[in-house]
Amino acid sequence: MSFVVAVPSYKRARLFLTKTYNVLEKASLLDKTTVFVVPEEEAEYRSLCAGVGIVVGKRGLVQQRQVIYDHYPEGTHILMLDDDIEGFIDIRNEKPTDILPIVLRGFKECEEAGARLWSIYPVANPFFMNPTVSRDLKFCCGWFFGLIKKGVSELPITVGDHKEDYHRTCAYWKADKVVIRINSIAAKQKFLRGDSLDANKETHRLCAEAVVKAFPGLATTYTRKSTGYAELRLSRRGMLFTTTTPT
């Protein structure tokens, strides 16, 4: 099975080089990788990041993801990951460097289930993981996921960067009645709260409400006590189609 690797990156060429680039190099995936950048940063990325393709796209995470989606032909298997992935941890508390089996498993599960979207467990804590591959409405994280390009992307630019992965999860669930999540492995990142909370609380609220409005019954909002920011919870209504398979 062939696939491509796509990384949207903005103002973080050196961070990418020490994080995701290093991860992809260890997994021997650099030759499959293209980094999507904004025009004014093309020269910097080309000078620092040898061995990967560079494509000039657009500013804004949602806009850049659409550029990535449009860049590849119909039927392409696209692994998309953020530029700050440090590594992986699995249910056995091990840190695998060969992620190829996980990637191939994700796309294989999609093909068998008629899905287009797959991801991995969103929390890098083995205590919460389980040895299953789920096909119900479970959150597919935006920092590491796979897509099989079939049809027009469901992700409108009006959603906003802050909840785009929830919107993607709901959109593909609504279209396919299945999304794949491998629950036995997660990506490790050093989340920079300045990145995730750089908009004000009103912006986060509006982005969360946009997802709920687009997918009534599939998502609800709540306020996280530790930050005061609006978050999303996927509805158990989506569990009506639940199936799981062991890893």
Task: Please explain how this structure is put together.
With 247 residues, the chain is of the alpha/beta class. It has one domain: Spore Coat Polysaccharide Biosynthesis Protein SpsA, Chain A, CATH 3.90.550.10. It is built from 8 helices and 12 strands. Strand 2, helix 3 and strand 3 form a beta-alpha-beta unit. It starts with a strand and ends with a strand. The relative contact order is 0.15. About 4% of the residues have low confidence.
Q: What's the helix and strand layout?
A:
Layout: E1 4-8, H1 13-18, H2 20-26, E2 33-37, H3 42-48, E3 53-56, H4 61-71, E4 77-81, E5 85-90, H5 100-113, E6 117-121, E7 132-134, E8 144-148, H6 164-176, E9 180-189, H7 193-196, H8 201-214, E10 219-223, E11 230-234, E12 244-246
Parallel strand pairs: 1-2, 1-4, 2-3, 6-9
Antiparallel strand pairs: 4-8, 5-9, 6-8, 7-9, 7-12, 10-11
Q: Give me the CATH fold name.
A: Spore Coat Polysaccharide Biosynthesis Protein SpsA, Chain A
* Regions with little confidence, pLDDT below 50 for 5+ residues: 192-197, 239-243
Instruction: Report mean pLDDT, rounded to a whole number.
Output: 89
**Helical percent range?**
25-40%
Key terms for this structure?
Spore Coat Polysaccharide Biosynthesis Protein SpsA, Chain A; 10-stranded mixed β-sheet; alpha/beta; two-stranded antiparallel ribbon; 247 residues
Q: What is shown here, in short?
A:
The chain has about 250 residues and is an alpha/beta fold. Helix content is about 30%, strand content about 25%.
